Structure prediction request, 269 residues.
Amino acid sequence: MSGPLLILQTGNVPRRFGLRDGFGEMFARRAGLAPDDFRILDAARGPGYPRDPRAHCAYIVTGSLSMVTARPLWSLRLADFILRAVESGVPVLGVCYGHQLVARALGGRVGWNPNGLEMGTHEVTLAPGAEGHPLLRGLPPSFPANLSHRQSILDPPPGGRPLAFSAADPCQILAVGEKVLTLQFHPEFDRWIASAFAREHFTTKDGRTVPLLRRPPRGAPAGLSLGVPVRNTPVAALILRRFVEGALPRHRARLAPAGFGDVQAPGNA
Prediction:
């Protein structure tokens, strides 16, 4: 029997963000997972992956403050494990950094988003035919989602289908086969988490939103797509919930309420 869902955490949240949860805990909280339904493995601190990917019922690859194109050793090892998990037929959900890393592990191309930084709450629009995917069935044609990224999938991997887009990124959702789905946006972000990330790039003065004068990383386009006000995004969170319920069908009745209407106040213990 497969073990609990494994959240592959790709780094830590800096203390200056004032958030109580790490990347892994954000997913567990937003999905309403019970403690014995999941484990978190910090991929950036060391491998420790199961020899057989089928040891877990599913995998979630989180976002990160790192860049996929930097190719640190831990990321290369994680990409190798992702490939083995996909080849083993285990469901995989990748988000932001995870979205890009899964695509690259499967043969896609990742690089700087030509439109620059996409930050805040933006409208994501489903592509024609996307409603046929079980995790997207019945969703509205477009919905708000929280974003924080400079890099994007530039070319999908072989067999990959882009299922949604935003004004600044043509690949907001990618499906590869029946069991791999990746999201450029953050379904685990409520408005407080999204605001904490956005504060790194803009401030508010006299009711006006003013981008901070920070130089983008070397080689990155300087554009900024800023979506404000930042808000909760329950439709985006529903995709995460559906993935978890599909991976843990025997635990659906035990899952805690998703809490889409709840928000996490900054700095709460």
Confidence is low (pLDDT under 50) at residues 253-269. The chain has one domain: 5-252.
